[in-house]
Design brief:
alpha+beta, Elongation Factor Tu (Ef-tu), domain 3, OB fold (Dihydrolipoamide Acetyltransferase, E2P), 6-stranded antiparallel barrel, about 325 residues, Helix Hairpins, 5 helices
């Protein structure tokens, strides 16, 4: 081959050097773009951190909003909020009546009349149920008759005693006759006291046939109907006589019952101020106070029952509905 032709085909080394800087530039740009992608894709500690509770369950906490979301031991979702208004803990519970009163008969009887129905307001002392009283009216009349007879017996014994004592003063009766007359008076009075007690018992049973409300409240449930047999205690079985007549509660005496996770127990104390907000009416809030902390926890749930007393409740607070409770800082 012609040497001149080979010389033309030869590539000068100095001619390839200008291409090297462009290759390094491309590699540098790729590295910078990859670093930027990794930087923005990697979770930042200032935005999110992982919290592991005592049962090994993991929850995510947002540092920007101050809200912790997790799952309690019972499996239900809960939300813990550190709101700007000095709330150290927020949990959900259910509104309950502090006391639910079920009126029961004191003896076996038949319901004669019921004067209330579910939802009716009642006052303290109001007659709500009447039991059949025919038997007890008869017992009272019988006791009244025996009582009158006992009083007559006492009068007779006292008159006889006076006569014997007068005759004894004149030595017409012996000392033994005087003592016997005095003892007959004592026996008649004792019998009178016994019959008075029986009469009082009969009247008490008659009074028990009239069932009155012990509180100012509302009827939660009517448990029996007229002509139904009721007893003071259950004899067993599902079709036995009823043991309660009606259920009552005071609508102005409400609490929120909460199953508090044991991990949050350190944030709650007795008499701690709270804010109660019903879930159905989130624009209504009420003051409350921790009124009761259960002395024993639930091992199965890992929770402790807390009761918050609601101050000045109104018609927007309905028992058995859910409510949110903010435990305020001390």
């Amino acid at each position: 081959m012609n040497p001149d032709r080979l010389k033309e085909l030869h590539i000068d080394e100095r001619g390839r050097k200008p291409g090297l800087p462009s290759l390094w530039t491309i590699l540098l740009v790729v590295l910078l773009v990859s670093a930027a992608v990794l930087y923005f894709a990697w979770p930042r500690l200032s935005q999110e951190r992982r919290v592991v509770d005592t049962r090994g369950k993991q929850s995510a906490t947002s540092a920007g909003s101050g809200i912790t979301k997790g799952t309690n031991a019972a499996g239900s979702a809960r939300t813990l909020t550190a709101s700007p208004s000095n709330a150290v803990l927020t949990v959900s519970g259910y509104i309950i009546n502090r006391e639910r009163i079920e009126l029961s008969p004191r003896f076996m009887g038949v319901v004669k009349w019921i004067g209330v129905k579910k939802g009716d307001a009642v006052t303290n002392g109001q007659v709500v149920v009447l039991l059949d009283d025919a038997e007890y009216v008869a017992r009272v009349r019988e006791a009244d008759g025996r009582l009158e007879g006992a009083r007559v017996a006492v009068n007779r014994a006292e008159i006889d005693n006076q006569r014997v004592q007068q005759l004894g003063a004149r030595n017409f009766e012996t000392k033994q006759a005087q003592d016997d007359a005095r003892l007959r008076v004592d026996a008649a009075r004792a019998t009178l006291h016994e019959i008075e007690g029986q009469n009082l018992l009969a009247r008490t049973y008659l009074d028990w046939t009239v069932i009155r409300s012990p509180i100012n409240g509302v009827v939660l449930e009517k448990l029996v109907d007229p002509n139904e047999l009721v007893v003071p205690q259950s004899f067993g079985g599902t079709r036995g006589p009823s043991t309660a007549l009606i259920a009552l509660a005071d609508p102005k005496d409400l609490q929120v019952e909460i199953d508090l996770n044991e991990a949050d127990l350190a944030k709650v104390s007795l008499n701690q101020a709270c804010r109660v907000t019903p879930e159905a009416f989130p624009d209504h809030s009420y003051q409350g106070v921790v009124a009761e902390i259960a002395p024993e926890a639930s091992r199965q749930k890992g929770t402790l029952q807390i009761k918050v007393q609601i101050q000045n409740p109104d018609r927007f607070l309905i028992p058995e509905l859910s409510a949110r409770v903010d435990f305020l800082g001390r």
